[in-house]
Every structure is written in structure tokens, then in C-alpha cells.
């Protein structure tokens, strides 16, 4: 396929160059090609973490252990997908942690209060989550404030709304249980069931996670929108000058984060049938950490969905591995901090290499 | 402000003479792609540009020279659609036009390559080349980028313009400044630009890199594009230009064909020789030390001489 297309150009172009250029490409070598990928740091890190816990904690490598690790990774990873794309597009979202809970609360409180079928609440939660993303994006675009500030404000407002509305409507800090309502079992089958493969139980979020990563990778690398995401994150003004719809792209990215929050929110709701309204605070940093470990630049314009997935995997392995190794879980945060630091240093080196010349 | 009373008159008579001669010239036989007639621009009570008359012809390079704050960028922003003129008439392909946005200008084939916002450094060359006008294949949810075609075309177009890239997959930030400008120019040409506006493409570049960009400007010219080349360096403008307009304080100091002006005159006009003379005249009237001023003038002339021979 590739050879035939190059042959075509050869007939049209002046005789000398293209053939030898192809030779020069191969001289770059496998190592150089690998080093140029954004997820290289995360891949090496994931392997190191896996080998480490495989040695110190034998249950870690059993089928059950792997399933548990993947589940832990998926609950972070689903959000990391949206957050990674947003970060490649050059923006932050600090409201993601509580937005997950908001989505679950909307579905639960609405269908409980109005005694509707659960699916009505689920649909409404989707609209609310996309809406929160759109509002984040619109305020950010209209005011030209940093997304850091806009979403920090949204984080605080949602935290307050979660607590206040849950108490006002349900009369408690946790949402009323909805497990005996219409549509609960079908919603649970969709959002919080398990699939057994070769006798091992895999939570369904693992598959949603993999699907989201695949879709996000396709969008990022093989569609116009992906090109625009890289461009608005890399240099917004240059992107606008060549006709990229910067506003629509950025708002779309915030809404993508909203969608991921809905998926995860629905899982949390139907896994436990009730949600604590004060939860989710601080998780936004885990998602951002996952994206950064996965090679997304804080300044935007560079990164990958697969890298973010590897970041979430490292997170899952570390959080479960420490338990399997029977260590004090207090060590987890230290470990996370160290990974973040190492990953950021690797990213910095990559960017310097690119920009130096 | 009284310094401006003399030269604009000269500039204008020169201008008028040029325009009356145009029908004789072979290149001007076709109507200009863009023509400005007494175009001016005010920002509130500030007059950024006044009474500019110039034409952009296919296959010609029109150079706009001037120091910082002379009104060069205001002029190109009017042609590029970023700002609207407040006086005079702009005609594009013979029709009176006012652009609302850069997109309007792009649709009429007027592409602008800005010095600092040409490309996204971290993105591969081929993605930059097609940014905003990506080629796709397939349909529905499987509509995807035609990566192979885009890489091939980008490589081919750049090669034809004299940039032989090893790998169009490398981030464009790894190219030199001149090459980056050239990619931005090549893409404008590929996407059917008829008028190419280049905003100080050589300003941040070294001698060799500037040469690359100048060669590229000649390529664009030979392809039949009308090029507007904005620069403050007469040594870059003179070799490639067909017509020269020198701006100062928002006014035209003259609009010359290449045959009518030497590089020394151009440099002198740029450096403000006339203004300096004016100043000495004024000082003499006030009883100033003209001897000292003559010394200053001699120094200026000497330094100009050096720069032209360099």
C-alpha cells in the first residue's frame, strides 16, 4: 500500500530526492521512534510497577488479582480518558471528581423524588453532565479566564450543590436507596455488572474503559477533530488563523469530560444503589495525575489516550498492589507523588528535545 | 507633525504617474487581484493609516516597507480581513469589498502567513500542513483522516518548493525558522491562495534562512500568485520585489516600480533621510548648530553606505 503510493509520487516529482529520503527515515532507528511516543514513560513505568509488585506480592499476578487491579484502574481510567483529551487540548478541569457524584445524584434523586423509572433519571444525568461540561467551556471561552479558575469555581459550586440538594430532597447526606425502583436491575446490568471469562470475574467498567480509550485514540489520531484538539492545545492562535473552530473544539472537550463523568457516576450509583453526597473531592487530582503520568503535557498539545490508560493502570496496580503486599496503605500517596514527579521529568525531557532545535 | 508636509506630495505624484503608465506594462494588462484606493483606517481618533493606494497583481511581488509603527500591520490586517478600513475603497478581483473575518478573505483566495502564528510546533509537519483543511476518507462514524495521502502530498509539495524533508512525521518545531515559514507558505499555495500576504517572514531569521524564504517567495511568484511581502529590510525586499511601497507614520512615502528606484534610494527612504533633512531645516530656522547636525547626517549616510555594501 505505502510502496505503491510512493511509486506514484515518484513519477510526478523531479527525479532525485524521495527515494533516498525514505532511506534516511529508516536510519532513525527503533529506539528513536519509541522515544518520540508520548506514552513511552508510562509504558516503562507500568512495566516496572508490574514487575515490582509481581515479586513482592504473589497474589498480585493471580487471575483474581489482575481482575481487581483492572477494576481499580478502570474506575480512574474512564475519567482519565476525558481529562487526557482536555489536557491535550490545553485545558484543565478541577470539577471532575465531584461531577461524577453530581451525575449519580441527579439520576438517583430525580427518579426517587418523582418516582419515575430509573432510566429517566439516567438520561437526565447525562444531560446534566454534558451541561456542566458545556457551562465550564462556555464560561471559559466567554470570560477568557484560565480554565483552572473556572473549573475550580465549578468544583466548589458542585460540592455545595451535591451536599445541599441531597439534604434538601432526600433529607440525608447520602442519596436514598433506589434498588427496588423500576429499571434498577436493567440499569445495574448495563453499568455495574460483571462478565465471567474463563472463570474469572471482570467488572463491566473494564470494558467501557477499554472501549473509551479505543474511541478516544481513534478520534485523536485519525479524525479531523483529533487534529484540532492537538492544535488548540499546541497553539490556539495558530489554530484559529488556519480556520480551526477553536471555541467549538474546547467546549466539546469539556463536554467529553462530562460524558466520562456520567459513565463513572452511573457505575457508582448502580454498584451501591446509594451515593454519599460528600464524596469525590480530591479525585480530580487522581485523574489529572493519571493523564500526566501517561505523558500528557500540562501545557497542552501533546499526549495520548493510551498513555492516560497506562497512567490509570499504574494507579490501579499501585493502589491494589500495596494491599496485596500487605503494606500500610499510607504509602500509596507517597508512591503516587513519586510516580508523578518521575513522569513529569520524562515529559519535560521529551518536550525539550522537540523544542530545542 | 510638520515634518510630514513635504514627502507625501512627492509620493503621490509618483504614485499617480505609476498608475497612469500601468496599461503599457505587460503584467498589468490583467486587472489587479487586490487594489486599494485611498484606503485609510482610524481607531477612534487615532489615524493608523491614511490615503494608501496600491495594487497587487498576479505574478508580482509587492513589498511594503516601513519601520515599526509605520502602519504595515494595519495595512495587511485590512487586506487579510482582521480589521476593516474606514476610508477609501478596496477592490478584490475588481469588486468593492470589506471583509468581516479572515475566513472571508481566505474564501476569496487571500491567505496570510503571520510571522509568529504560522504553525503548531509540537504537531507533525503533515498535520500542520493540512490543519483546518484535513483530507478524509470513508463515511459516517468511520470517516477518518486520509493519513497516507496527506503525508504524501505534504512531502511532495514541500519537495517541489525546495524543502527536502527526511520525515514529514517529525514535529514541525524541529524544523528551522525558515523552513517553518516555508511550510506555512507552501500550505497557503497548495490550498489555492491567489494572493499571499507575508508578514515579516524574514524578521526573526538569519541570513541563510532568510535566503530560503526569499527563494520561496520567488517560487510563489512564478506560480502566478500575487505576493504582498511586508518587511523592514530593504535588502530582503529589493531582490524579490516588483513594486515597493514605503510607509511612514501611516502614510505612503511613495509607490515605486523596481526600475524607478535603486536599492540605495529605497534604503534612504526607509531610514528617513528626508525627515532628517527636514529636521536640519527646522533647526536652522531656530538657529540651531547646523554644523553638528551635518556631522550627524554624514554619520548616517556613512552607516547606510556600509549596510548597502555589506
Automatic annotation (TrEMBL), chain B:
Protein keywords: ATP-binding, Nucleotide-binding
Polar residues bias (residue ranges): 23-33
Record field: transmembrane: none
Entries under PROSITE patterns matching the protein: ABC_TRANSPORTER_1, ABC_TRANSPORTER_2
Biased composition (Basic and acidic residues): 7-22
Keyword Metal-binding part of the UniProt annotation: no
Keyword Electron transport: no
Pfam assignment, any one: ABC_tran
Name assigned to this protein: Sugar ABC transporter ATP-binding protein
Region annotation (Disordered) ranges: 1-33
Entries under InterPro entries matching the protein: AAA+_ATPase, ABC_carbohydrate_import_ATPase, ABC_transporter-like_ATP-bd, ABC_transporter-like_CS, P-loop_NTPase
Amino acid at each position: 500500500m505505502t510502496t505503491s503510493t510512493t511509486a506514484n509520487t515518484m513519477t510526478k516529482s523531479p527525479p532525485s530526492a524521495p527515494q533516498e529520503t525514505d532511506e534516511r527515515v529508516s536510519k532513525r532507528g527503533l529506539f528513536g521512534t519509541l522515544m518520540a511516543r508520548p506514552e513511552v514513560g508510562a509504558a516503562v513505568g507500568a512495566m516496572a510497577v508490574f514487575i515490582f509488585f509481581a515479586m513482592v506480592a504473589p497474589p498480585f499476578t493471580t487471575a483474581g488479582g489482575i481482575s481487581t487491579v483492572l477494576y481499580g484502574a478502570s474506575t480512574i481510567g474512564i475519567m482519565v480518558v476525558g481529562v487526557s483529551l482536555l489536557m491535550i487540548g490545553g485545558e484543565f478541569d478541577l470539577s471532575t471528581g465531584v461531577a461524577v457524584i453530581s451525575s449519580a445524584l441527579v439520576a438517583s434523586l430525580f427518579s426517587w423524588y418523582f418516582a419515575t423509572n430509573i432510566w429517566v433519571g439516567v438520561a437526565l444525568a447525562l444531560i446534566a453532565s454534558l451541561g456542566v461540561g458545556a457551562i465550564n467551556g462556555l464560561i471559559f471561552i466567554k470570560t477568557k479566564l484560565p480554565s483552572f479558575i473556572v473549573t475550580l469555581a465549578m468544583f466548589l459550586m458542585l460540592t455545595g450543590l451535591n451536599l445541599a440538594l441531597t439534604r434538601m430532597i432526600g433529607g440525608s447526606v447520602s442519596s436514598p436507596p433506589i434498588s427496588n425502583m423500576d429499571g434498577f436491575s436493567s440499569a445495574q446490568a448495563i453499568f455495574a455488572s460483571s462478565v465471567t471469562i474463563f472463570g474469572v470475574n471482570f467488572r463491566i467498567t473494564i470494558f467501557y474503559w477499554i472501549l473509551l480509550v479505543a474511541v478516544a485514540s481513534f478520534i485523536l489520531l485519525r479524525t479531523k477533530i483529533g487534529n484540532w484538539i492537538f492544535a488548540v492545545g499546541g497553539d490556539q492562535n495558530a489554530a484559529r488563523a488556519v480556520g480551526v473552530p477553536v471555541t467549538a473544539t474546547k467546549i466539546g472537550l469539556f463536554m467529553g469530560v462530562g460524558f466520562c463523568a456520567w459513565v463513572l457516576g452511573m457505575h457508582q450509583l448502580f454498584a451501591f444503589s446509594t451515593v454519599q453526597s460528600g464524596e469525590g473531592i480530591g479525585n480530580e487530582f487522581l485523574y489529572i495525575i493519571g493523564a500526566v503520568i501517561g505523558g500528557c503535557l500540562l501545557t497542552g498539545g501533546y499526549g495520548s489516550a493510551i498513555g492516560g490508560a497506562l497512567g490509570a493502570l499504574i494507579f490501579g496496580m499501585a493502589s491494589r498492589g500495596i494491599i496485596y503486599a500487605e503494606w500500610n496503605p499510607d504509602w500509596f500517596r507517597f508512591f503516587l507523588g513519586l510516580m508523578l514527579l518521575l513522569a513529569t521529568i520524562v515529559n519535560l525531557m521529551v518536550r525539550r528535545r522537540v523544542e530545542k532545535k | 507633525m510638520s515634518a510630514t508636509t513635504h514627502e507625501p506630495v512627492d509620493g503621490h505624484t509618483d504614485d499617480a504617474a505609476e498608475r497612469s503608465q500601468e496599461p503599457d506594462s505587460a503584467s498589468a494588462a490583467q486587472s489587479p487581484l487586490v487594489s486599494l484606493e485611498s484606503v485609510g483606517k482610524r481607531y477612534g481618533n487615532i489615524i493608523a493609516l491614511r490615503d494608501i493606494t496600491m495594487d497587487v497583481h498576479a505574478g508580482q511581488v509587492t513589498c511594503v516597507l516601513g519601520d515599526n509603527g509605520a502602519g504595515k500591520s494595519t495595512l495587511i490586517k485590512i487586506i487579510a480581513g482582521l480589521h476593516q478600513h474606514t476610508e477609501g475603497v478596496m477592490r478584490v478581483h475588481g469588486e468593492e469589498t470589506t471583509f468581516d473575518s479572515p475566513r472571508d478573505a481566505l474564501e476569496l483566495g487571500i491567505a496570510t502567513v503571520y510571522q509568529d502564528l504560522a504553525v503548531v510546533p509540537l504537531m507533525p509537519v503533515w498535520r500542520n500542513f493540512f490543519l483546518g483543511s484535513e483530507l478524509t476518507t470513508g463515511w459516517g462514524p468511520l470517516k477518518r483522516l486520509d493519513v497516507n495521502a496527506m503525508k504524501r502530498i505534504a512531502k511532495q509539495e514541500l519537495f517541489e518548493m525546495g524543502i527536502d524533508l527526511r520525515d514529514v512525521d517529525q514535529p514541525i518545531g524541529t524544523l528551522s525558522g525558515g523552513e517553518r515559514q516555508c511550510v506555512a507558505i507552501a500550505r497557503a499555495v497548495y490550498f489555492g491562495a491567489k494572493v499571499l500576504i507575508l508578514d515579516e517572514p524574514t524578521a526573526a531569521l538569519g541570513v541563510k534562512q532568510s535566503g530560503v524564504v526569499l527563494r520561496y517567495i520567488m517560487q510563489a511568484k512564478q506560480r502566478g500568485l500575487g505576493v504582498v511581502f511586508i518587511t523592514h529590510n530593504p535588502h530582503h525586499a529589493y531582490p524579490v520585489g516588483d513594486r515597493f511601497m514605503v510607509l511612514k507614520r501611516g502614510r505612503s512615502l511613495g509607490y515605486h516600480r523596481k526600475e524607478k528606484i535603486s536599492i540605495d534610494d529605497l534604503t534612504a527612504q526607509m531610514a528617513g533621510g528626508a525627515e532628517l533633512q527636514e529636521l536640519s531645516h527646522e533647526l536652522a530656522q531656530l538657529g540651531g548648530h547646523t554644523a553638528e547636525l551635518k556631522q550627524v547626517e554624514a554619520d548616517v549616510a556613512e552607516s547606510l553606505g556600509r549596510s548597502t555594501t555589506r
